[in-house]
UniProtKB/TrEMBL annotation:
Ranges in coiled-coil conformation: none
Domain of life: Eukaryota
UniProt xrefs under PANTHER family: TRANSLATION FACTOR GUF1, MITOCHONDRIAL, TRANSLATION FACTOR GUF1-RELATED
CDD domains: EF4_II (cd03699), LepA (cd01890)
Organism encoding this protein: Triticum urartu (Red wild einkorn)
Protein name: Tr-type G domain-containing protein
Region (Disordered): 14-55
Keyword list, A-Z: GTP-binding, Hydrolase, Membrane, Nucleotide-binding
Matches recorded under Pfam families: GTP_EFTU, GTP_EFTU_D2
Molecular function terms from GO: GTP binding; GTPase activity; mitochondrial ribosome binding
GO (cellular component) term, any one: mitochondrion
Classification lineage: Eukaryota, Viridiplantae, Streptophyta, Embryophyta, Tracheophyta
NCBIfam families registered for this protein in UniProt: small_GTP
Residue ranges occupied by any Tr-type G domain in the UniProt entry: 60-251
């Protein structure tokens, strides 16, 4: 059995090795044509979610989680099913919805992490009233690539999360990137929910996978969820587990705004779009924000959530993950891991990712 101290030592050493290894994700250059996303009708923006609606989700009602796994174990398919289950997308859209890039559609693999915000009603039994209580939650899901070349995408996604679904193919079992990604999540102190997927396959052996998870990661077999993202079996347990087992984001709602810049891309019409996680405070359209890395100041022209496309809200509150459009002219100004903060305010930069 891997004891907690031994596990932590192994995780540290694995994460150090990953950090020192030349990162192919930073050196691989994909042709521009393959990196473009095509806006199909279902990928076009939807009507906005109002600021007052978003204000109903304080940190206690928010969960931020990644889906991590070895390549092809079913992360993006599971993400699709969760988006369908919450009504964020319609059923029957075909290939993996969050694999938006041309290269992902052509090759059937994920190369870029994608965030999507979902609204979900969670019902629990109330022993006092002998009835049930239902509360609404805002869930931010980040689908990550499983291929080793893109592991940097996983590390930076985890920086915006408090938990992760560790998906393992029920027939293949634990593989190289299962181990590497488990260590990344473990070292980031995330709550890890094991999900044994593809249980519909004739060669599925969930008991063997449970034994592997126990032996390698000291995960209690009873914690594993058994799912088939293909048939839908077991999926109804996933979001209740996310709410019950993953902590809400920490952060101070009353402090000046401080946010982590997770990713950026250039849109022909809107300019630079930054993905951010709000750590403290709130950011509103019209606010002035500064970059801790460059010292430059920008005005917030648009802000919103990925629901699952750009959906303006006019504001993002503590613990929420979304996008911001400022006057940045080039993605070179948007440094991944930078702390963006309220202009003319001195803040402590967030830990480097
Ligand atoms: N039989 C079966 N096939 C599945 C299931 N979930 C996913 N698949 C299939 O497995 C293949 C890979 O699925 P993806 O969702 O793209 O896997 P992924 O983990 O996102 O892959 P990368 O992002 O490239 O690492 C696809 O052909 C899916 O249709 C499942 O529960 N059962
Ligand atoms: Mg994928």
């Amino acid at each position: 059995m891997a004891g907690a101290a031994a596990l932590r030592r192994a995780a540290r050493s694995a994460v150090r090795k990953l950090a020192n290894a030349p990162s192919p994700s930073r050196t691989i250059v994909l042709p521009e044509r393959l990196l473009s996303s095509q806006a199909s009708p279902e990928h076009r923006p939807r009507p906005g979610v109002s600021a007052s609606e978003l204000g109903q989700y304080p940190p206690e009602r928010i969960r931020n989680f990644s889906i991590i796994a070895h390549v092809d174990h079913g992360k993006s398919t599971l993400a699709d099913r969760l988006l369908e289950l919450t009504g964020t997308i319609q059923k029957g859209h075909g290939a993996q919805y969050l694999d938006k890039l041309q290269v992902e559609k052509e090759r059937g693999i994920t190369v870029k992490a994608q965030t999507a915000t979902m609204f979900y009603k969670h019902t629990v039994e109330n022993p006092d009233s002998h009835g049930t209580d239902t509360s609404s939650y805002l869930l931010n899901l980040i689908d990550t690539p499983g291929h080793v070349d893109f592991s940097y995408e996983v590390s930076r996604s985890l920086a915006a999360c408090q938990g992760a679904l560790l998906v393992v193919d029920a027939a293949q079992g634990v593989q190289a990137q299962t181990i590497a990604n488990f260590y990344l999540a473990f070292e980031s102190n995330l709550s890890i929910i094991p999900v044994i997927n593809k249980i519909d396959q004739p060669t599925a052996d969930p008991d063997n996978v449970k034994a592997q998870l126990k032996r390698l990661f000291d995960i209690d077999p009873s914690e594993a969820l058994l799912t088939s993202a293909k048939t839908g079996q077991g999926l109804s347990q996933v979001l209740p587990a996310v709410i019950e087992r993953i902590p809400c984001p920490p952060g101070n709602c009353d402090s000046p705004v401080r946010m982590l810049l997770l990713d950026s891309y250039y849109d022909e019409y809107k300019g630079v779009i930054c993905h951010v996680a709000i750590v403290d405070g709130a950011m509103r359209k019209g606010d002035k924000i500064s970059s801790a890395a460059t010292g430059r100041t920008y005005e917030v022209f648009d802000v919103g959530i990925m629901h699952p496309e750009l959906t303006p809200t006019g504001v993002l509150y503590t613990g929420q993950v979304g996008y911001v459009i400022t006057g940045m002219r080039s993605t070179k100004e948007a440094r991944i891991g930078d702390t963006l903060h309220q202009a003319k305010t001195i803040v402590e930069p967030l830990p480097v990712i």
